[in-house]
Design a protein that fits this description.
Structural class: alpha/beta
Order of helices and strands: HHHHEHHHEEEEEHEEEHH
Number of helices: 10
Strand order of the largest sheet: 1-2-3-4-7-9-8
Radius of gyration: 21 Å
Distance between the termini: 33 Å
Shape: globular
Low-confidence stretches: 70-82
């Protein structure tokens, strides 16, 4: 199971209540294996999820740890270990390569919304020792968990783009009006200027008629919403975006990246987190091979730096 606040719990994957007895848990595991095994026509993804769930709660010791919220060793969107409370895009101390220029606080606004939502949900006078405790997060309403999931997605993207190198400049949590209409990341590099949303919808997404669809996709037309925000910013800064990009967890998209055609006159793509860096280095197919630099790159960077505003 991916490391997302929207992920199903181990008990939900196995189809039992969290209060199930040890024997009920074992029966549920065997049943889930039979139903999902690829050799009998089952879904390989669900089969792997069942095995992963059993790894978490299959013994009394693991179950106690999981129920206590200390088993937060699931995979992140990029495949590395992380916890819900990790944040930011700080480079490792061993990596001395020049980093991209970064401005703003990735995931900061959504982190604040998550914490406010958790306090309101817990109730007045209730002390939350650790609002990021996995067991507590799993019990919170979906809207609150979605806010944290998006914050984690933004932070994962920030780590990716900060490693692109000194030729790139990134602005996080960019305002285009009300905070809800922010652009998560604006990235400028040799292949162009990109408006990016980092999303975790809590499930698979598909492309249809120039838009993302899926059972949990909200807002209903995320790519058109991103394009609308980017056009607002484009008018304010007097710059043109090269491409609109929505980044999703790797397991949310069947292909590494998919084109949505053009939206409001610009190329639009949805891309897995793990191939975002490649897209930004090579550019969208429609403009691949075109590089900007020198005075043009300096002019765009100056316009964006002088006019951009961050969400508060």
């Amino acid at each position: 199971m991916p490391d997302s606040p929207l992920s199903a719990s181990a008990y939900e994957v196995l189809g039992v209540e969290a209060s199930a007895s040890e024997s009920e848990l074992k029966k549920a595991f065997r049943r889930a294996l039979r139903e999902t095994h690829p050799d009998t026509g089952g879904d390989p993804t669900r089969f792997a999820a069942v095995q992963d769930a059993w790894e978490r709660v299959g013994t009394p010791e693991k179950r106690r740890s999981y129920d206590a919220g200390s088993a937060s060793h699931s995979r992140s969107a990029t495949g590395s270990s992380s916890s819900f409370s990790s944040r930011g895009s700080a480079p490792s101390r061993e990596d001395s390569r020049p980093r991209a220029r970064t401005h703003g606080h990735p995931g900061g606004w959504r982190r604040e919304r998550f914490l406010a939502g958790m306090r309101e949900w817990a109730g007045r006078g209730v002390s939350l020792d650790d609002p990021y405790d996995p067991a507590l997060v799993r019990s919170a309403p979906r809207e609150i968990r979605r806010t944290l999931a998006d914050a984690l997605a933004e932070e994962a993207t920030a780590r990716t783009v900060s490693a692109l190198g000194i030729g790139f400049t990134i602005w996080h949590d960019v305002s285009t009006g009300p905070p809800e209409r922010k652009i998560d990341h604006v990235v400028l590099g040799p292949t162009g200027l990109y408006a990016i949303l980092s999303e975790d919808f809590g499930g698979r997404v598909k492309v249809r008629r120039g838009e993302l669809i899926g059972p949990a996709v909200q807002p209903e037309k995320p790519m058109h919403e991103l394009a609308s925000r980017a056009k607002t910013l484009s008018r304010q800064l007097k710059v043109n975006f090269t491409c609109f990009v929505i980044v999703v967890p790797d397991d949310a998209l069947a292909q590494p990246q998919e084109s949505l055609g053009t939206v409001k006159g610009q190329p639009a793509v949805v891309v897995r987190q793990s191939v975002l860096a490649h897209l930004l280095r090579t550019g969208p197919e429609s403009s691949r091979g075109r590089q900007i630099g020198g005075n043009e790159l300096f002019d765009v960077r100056t316009r964006v730096s002088n006019g951009i505003r961050f969400v508060e």
